[in-house]
TrEMBL record:
Native organism taxonomy: Bacteria, Pseudomonadati, Pseudomonadota, Gammaproteobacteria, Oceanospirillales
Taxonomic source organism: Halomonas halmophila
Molecular functions (GO terms): protein dimerization activity
InterPro entries in the cross-refs: H-NS-like_N (IPR054180), Histone_HNS_N (IPR027454)
Taxonomic superkingdom: Bacteria
DNA-binding protein H-NS-like N-terminal domain span: 6-79
Pfam assignment, any one: Histone_HNS_N
Region of interest (Disordered), ranges: 66-96
Record protein name field: DNA-binding protein H-NS-like N-terminal domain-containing protein
Protein backbone atom coordinates (compact mmCIF):
# COMPACT_ATOMS: atom_id res chain seq x y z
CA UNK A 1 0.00 0.00 0.00
CA UNK A 2 1.45 3.33 -0.97
CA UNK A 3 1.81 6.40 1.19
CA UNK A 4 -0.70 8.19 -1.00
CA UNK A 5 -3.29 5.50 -0.31
CA UNK A 6 -2.65 5.70 3.43
CA UNK A 7 -3.05 9.47 3.30
CA UNK A 8 -6.36 9.14 1.45
CA UNK A 9 -7.60 6.61 4.00
CA UNK A 10 -6.53 8.84 6.88
CA UNK A 11 -8.29 11.89 5.43
CA UNK A 12 -11.60 10.36 4.42
CA UNK A 13 -13.76 8.11 6.56
CA UNK A 14 -15.61 6.68 3.56
CA UNK A 15 -12.36 5.70 1.87
CA UNK A 16 -11.26 4.05 5.12
CA UNK A 17 -14.55 2.12 5.32
CA UNK A 18 -14.19 0.95 1.72
CA UNK A 19 -10.64 -0.24 2.38
CA UNK A 20 -11.75 -1.95 5.60
CA UNK A 21 -14.45 -3.90 3.75
CA UNK A 22 -11.71 -5.67 1.81
CA UNK A 23 -10.15 -7.02 5.01
CA UNK A 24 -11.26 -9.77 7.37
CA UNK A 25 -11.94 -9.07 11.04
CA UNK A 26 -8.66 -10.74 11.94
CA UNK A 27 -6.79 -8.50 9.50
CA UNK A 28 -8.58 -5.42 10.85
CA UNK A 29 -7.62 -6.27 14.44
CA UNK A 30 -4.01 -6.86 13.36
CA UNK A 31 -4.03 -3.54 11.47
CA UNK A 32 -5.40 -1.73 14.53
CA UNK A 33 -2.67 -3.30 16.67
CA UNK A 34 0.06 -2.30 14.22
CA UNK A 35 -1.27 1.24 13.88
CA UNK A 36 -1.44 1.52 17.67
CA UNK A 37 2.22 0.54 17.92
CA UNK A 38 3.17 3.04 15.21
CA UNK A 39 1.27 5.80 17.01
CA UNK A 40 3.01 4.93 20.26
CA UNK A 41 6.43 5.01 18.57
CA UNK A 42 5.67 8.38 16.96
CA UNK A 43 4.56 9.78 20.34
CA UNK A 44 7.76 8.51 21.96
CA UNK A 45 9.89 10.04 19.19
CA UNK A 46 8.07 13.37 19.49
CA UNK A 47 8.46 13.41 23.29
CA UNK A 48 12.16 12.55 22.97
CA UNK A 49 12.64 15.33 20.39
CA UNK A 50 10.87 17.86 22.62
CA UNK A 51 12.95 16.78 25.63
CA UNK A 52 16.15 17.21 23.60
CA UNK A 53 15.05 20.69 22.46
CA UNK A 54 14.23 21.71 26.03
CA UNK A 55 17.57 20.40 27.27
CA UNK A 56 19.37 22.26 24.49
CA UNK A 57 17.50 25.48 25.35
CA UNK A 58 18.41 25.10 29.05
CA UNK A 59 22.08 24.56 28.20
CA UNK A 60 22.07 27.56 25.89
CA UNK A 61 20.52 29.72 28.61
CA UNK A 62 23.14 28.53 31.10
CA UNK A 63 25.96 29.33 28.68
CA UNK A 64 24.53 32.78 27.94
CA UNK A 65 24.25 33.43 31.66
CA UNK A 66 27.87 32.36 32.21
CA UNK A 67 28.99 34.60 29.34
CA UNK A 68 27.13 37.56 30.86
CA UNK A 69 28.53 36.84 34.33
CA UNK A 70 32.03 36.81 32.87
CA UNK A 71 31.39 40.23 31.29
CA UNK A 72 31.73 38.90 27.76
CA UNK A 73 29.53 39.00 24.70
CA UNK A 74 29.05 36.56 21.87
CA UNK A 75 31.09 38.86 19.63
CA UNK A 76 34.04 38.43 22.00
CA UNK A 77 33.94 34.68 21.46
CA UNK A 78 33.63 34.72 17.67
CA UNK A 79 36.68 36.16 15.93
CA UNK A 80 36.17 38.34 12.89
CA UNK A 81 35.89 36.19 9.83
CA UNK A 82 38.40 37.04 7.11
CA UNK A 83 36.83 38.55 4.05
CA UNK A 84 36.54 36.09 1.26
CA UNK A 85 38.45 36.84 -1.85
CA UNK A 86 36.44 36.87 -4.98
CA UNK A 87 37.23 34.06 -7.30
CA UNK A 88 37.61 34.29 -11.00
CA UNK A 89 34.43 35.00 -12.94
CA UNK A 90 32.95 32.18 -15.01
CA UNK A 91 34.50 31.75 -18.47
CA UNK A 92 31.30 32.53 -20.32
CA UNK A 93 30.25 35.48 -18.17
CA UNK A 94 29.19 38.58 -20.05
CA UNK A 95 31.48 41.52 -19.56
CA UNK A 96 29.64 44.60 -18.34
Amino acid sequence: MSTQTLEQIARNKNVARAAARQLSMEQLHKLAEVIGEVIEQKNDEEKRRQDEEEQKARKLAEIREQINEAGLSVEDLVPDQPKRKRGRPPKNAEKS
